[in-house]
Amino acid sequence: MERTHTIAGAPEVRLAVRVRGMSHEHRFFDEVASTTRLTEEFIVIRLRDRVDPDSELHITNMRTQVGGTYRVAWINMRSDEGLHAVGLELLDPEGEIWEPGSIPEGVDSAGGPPVALLECQRCHKRVSTPLPEAEAESLGEGFTIARHCEPCRATTAWTIAVEAPPESAQPESEAAPASSTGKRQYTKEQRQKGRAPLRMPIKTIRHRYGAMVFDVAETINVSRTGVYFATDQSYEVGGEVKVIMPYHPNGVAIPVVARVVRQDEPSGTTGKRVAIHLTP
């Protein structure tokens, strides 16, 4: 029976672990890393060495000195300050790896797991699917997950399919100056930059008419510097907002400052589409 792992919405748990295995460069490594999410059968860690999806690693809890064999379910190939986010599925425990009370009870499932458009790197089939085993903040460019592919009849590597965004979703800071006809021109490099179609909860905080206004919405696509989301509220182009993404009601994430660069009102709907640019 296939196991379903729920990491999305799980609180952070920082524990030191020893990680041993073969790197992407086929080099044996032995390093101490830290967990970020923790369940009985699935963990997320930050790892200096890049590893291949569906490979196996040996993890040892530095406190209990008990370990087990884990499978690399997913990894973000792009490092963040020299560390890769890695999702690991427990295959063969050697005992009670985690101390009683170290694993949080339950997860915050409000809003559901993030949904992403994935593409098989072997046959290029695409499928939109929820990813309960993925840490939402690790999704995006570089995210690679090992999943079964029906056409390939094998477990293959899948990445988030990045598509060129519509003009309405392109932040002005990423657009070329307007031409003599008044229309913005986009270079080939800018078109290829694209955005990852990801659906996850987002919360914005802003001042309006002297009051604090909150909005919990859902993203449509995301890039490293911008977000495009659906909302029922109106936003002022050029206005400053604070953003929490992914948003969990019981989370403690620090808001990021952003600027509204576009608001669309698609015909046939009462909702709006807002593009924001994340400021450094």
How large is the share of residues in beta strands? Answer: 35-45%
Provide the structure class: mainly beta
Describe the strand arrangement of the main beta sheet, using strand numbers: 1-2-3-6-5-4
Cα shape: globular
Order of helices and strands: EEEEEEEEEEHEEEEEEE
- Rg, rounded, reads 21 Å
| Helix content range | under 10%
Largest sheet: 6 strands, antiparallel, barrel
**Which blocks of ≥5 consecutive residues have pLDDT under 50?**
165-193
Total beta strand runs? 17
Query: Count the helices. How many?
Result: 1
Distance between the termini: 45 Å
Mean pLDDT: 83
Summarize the structure in words.
The structure is a single chain. With 280 residues, the chain is mostly beta strands. 2% of the residues lie in helices and 44% in strands. The chain has one helix spanning 188-193; strands at residues 16-22, 28-38, 42-47, 56-61, 67-76, 84-93, 115-120, 126-130, 143-149, 154-160, 198-199, 201-208, 211-222, 226-231, 240-244, 256-264, 272-278. The strands form two sheets. The chain has a six-stranded antiparallel β-barrel.
